[in-house]
Amino acid sequence: MRLSWRSKAADIEAKMSKKRIIIPRFTSEAEDAKWHERHRRALERATERRILAASTLTFSQATARAKTQPATPRLGATNIDMARAMAAEKGIGYQAYVKMLLYEALRQEAGNQ
């Protein structure tokens, strides 16, 4: 089966649209504007994909995420069950609840020293 040039172009565009766009550092606003104008369609497609996939972040979420580091504490099953129950009463996820408790305990301990 032979593809038409439109089919080939659509195939190439589909492959390219899945690539991650890396925005370089610019030395001037003119260079920045030129690059963004040149990559406008790809940026729009990438943004549309993120919106449709519901994987966009607000500015405050992105800055908060950039300031955090992952941690994997080992907790007993009874502690996790208790945290899940207490978090459900408050209407939040248990991981957010545990993070909130840890933050409060650290702040309180720092105040006691």
Give the distance, in angstroms, between the N- and C-terminal Cα atoms: 76 Å
Helix-and-strand structural type: mainly alpha
Q: What is the general shape?
A: elongated
**In DSSP terms, counting alpha (H) and pi (I) runs of 4 or more, how many helices?**
6
SSE pattern, N- to C-terminal: HHHHHH
**What does the radius of gyration come to?**
23 Å
Number of domain units: 2
Oligomer: single chain
Helix content: 55-70%
Quote the average pLDDT: 81
Q: Regions with pLDDT < 50 over 5+ consecutive residues?
A: none
- Major sheet size, sense and barrel closure: none
Which strand-content bin applies to the residues? under 5%
How many distinct beta strands?
Answer: 0
What can you tell me about this protein's structure?
This protein has 2 domains: 1-68, no CATH class; 72-113. Helix content is 69%, strand content 0%. It is built from 6 helices and no strands. Helix 5 packs across helix 6. The chain is elongated. The relative contact order is 0.05. The mean pLDDT is 81.
